[in-house]
Amino acid sequence: MERPLTKHIKPGSAAYNLKEYKQVGGYNGVTKALINMAPGEVTNLVKASNLLGRGGAGFPTGVKWSLIPMDVDRNGPKYLVCNADEMEPGTFKDRYLLEGNPHQLIEGMIISAYAIQAEKAYIFLRWAYKKAEAGLCKAIDEAYKAGYLGKNILGSGFNLDLYVHSSAGRYICGEETALLNSLEGKRAVPRTKPPFPAISGLFGRPTVVNNVETLSWISHLVENGADWFKGLSLTATGGTKLYGVSGKVKNPGTWELPLGTTMRELLEDHAGGMIAGHKFRGVLPGGASTDFLIEEHLDVKMDFTTVAAAGSRLGTGTMIILDDKTCPVAFIHNIEKFFALESCGWCTPCREGLPWVEKMLVSIEEGTGIMEYIDLLNFNAKYMGPGNTFCAHAPGAAEPLQSGLRYFHDDFVKHITDKKCPWR
Amino acid sequence: MLTEKEKKEIHEEIKLYPYPAGACIDALKIVQHHRGWVSDESVKDIAKLLSISNEEVDGVATFYSRIYRKPVGRNVILICDSVSCMIMGYESLYEHISKKLVISFGGTTSDERFTLLPISCLGDCDNAPAMMINNDHFNRLTAEKIDELLERYK
Ligand SMILES: Cc1cc2nc3c(=O)[nH]c(=O)nc-3n(C[C@H](O)[C@H](O)[C@H](O)COP(=O)(O)O)c2cc1C
Ligand code: SF4
Ligand code: FES
Prior knowledge:
Chain A is of the alpha/beta class. Chain A is built from 18 helices and eight strands. Chain A folds into three domains: 18-231, Rossmann fold (3-Layer(aba) Sandwich); 240-323, Ubiquitin-like (UB roll); 328-418, NADH-ubiquinone oxidoreductase 51kDa subunit, iron-sulphur binding domain (de novo design (two linked rop proteins), Up-down Bundle), CATH 1.20.1440.230. The longest helix of chain B is centred in the first third of the chain and has 12 residues, at 24-35.
């Protein structure tokens, strides 16, 4: 089984430096793309591979790049931004790539910037990722010295400067337009779309924002081609995926596996099954902003379309397991508290709805809830849903709530009728 | 008053932006780096330097969770209180630290050695429970491990 993104990551030992990375074929992709390919050819290759964005929404990367004006608008800078703000509870995959192989990301960014002809690129990094920050800065320094960054890269005439911006903290910075405001030194509130960043992004200029895992693919695509990429998965969407499992399992962790690996395989073969004495009750398949799935869904393939068909989202591909010793109301309360705290405060259903949801959940958990709250929670989940807010923060918060209310309805009712939490 | 060193560092950042206000977050970080937190006076000084209003600077300063608008202790303990760490029992660790230091979330010990704050998911969910002390990460925490760790920070 091929593991292109992680094969050079050895947990516990330091990431490859430039020399070591080159010894295993690193930076060949840059040479190939910048010397032998036109920018449009790179974009077409990414389009042909049908690489879907790994940041959560699964948007086709090649399509996103092709929205960047290439011929008319050459009288000002364009930007490439790597979204490395990873902060969704239960998600720890980008950190693995950032700490494990910074040169792979940098190489991918050089080729991507070349494809859209951006001469400035940023890595928007979560503040807490101190180890990743040090590793990236060192790797960028090496890349400058070796002539892979800076002016006239490999004599191609293409220039690129790459900066690391360490965030000042807030989950909403990960939303791509909020991220752009933050890079401009402002409050990280999402922007109205359209215009999309491809037309008017950072400082009003055409900008592409992509996730760490997405950009880490680009050098491999250039070297091995679209058909190779498509052949890596078990489903129609190409590639492998970094999956993760956390919760009361024997061996929590993150693994690169073919897209379309089932939840059961992840849970049982890779995460080692549940810790003795704990039973599986449910799972958020792709981070805190995805709908619960339950036992009957365990054979669902972890791909964008298949998880969606089961009623949830692949999201970030990192599963959080709910076990029978953890109160589902407390689990959902913890998640809604996070979303309430991290709301930027722009839209009413999010700013007002989430604290209200949080209060009702506290009340149910403490045994002072009333039946009417269940309807009110459903009411709020509906109004936080898609179409009522500027960004996907509130719809994301609605997902574990609405599905949790459905799958764990009896547990909610029991808290209310018994006037106490059965788990305490 | 900003020190010459702070001003110099902020001017370096300004160069990277099309206009000075772009360096607002960097300026706040620089001041916090030197002073531990950002006072009302510093907000005004930064606003003047960047030619924007005090309110604009404060709007940014209060938006971001890692900019402190109140003094903190010499060491800041950040306990992850997100869902995977909850499943793995961060609450009992919080109670342990809270009892030991006699402070709750948001509090600073009377000797100003520690400030205790909650933090959202640290991306270490497969090694939960996790926390940070200043810039250092720790995971797979137990009460004993925490006792030992705290000793390293004076
Ligand atoms: C509230 C919120 C937080 C987000 N956080 C992140 C994040 O931390 N990292 C990320 O890559 N995408 C995040 N996204 C998705 C981005 O908006 C965007 O879709 C993504 O960076 C695009 O990259 P991709 O096309 O490579 O997936 C977030 C979205 C929302 C609504
Ligand atoms: S949905 Fe929430 S986070 Fe998103 S713009 Fe509206 S208030 Fe802000
Ligand atoms: S939930 Fe605590 S590190 Fe992710």
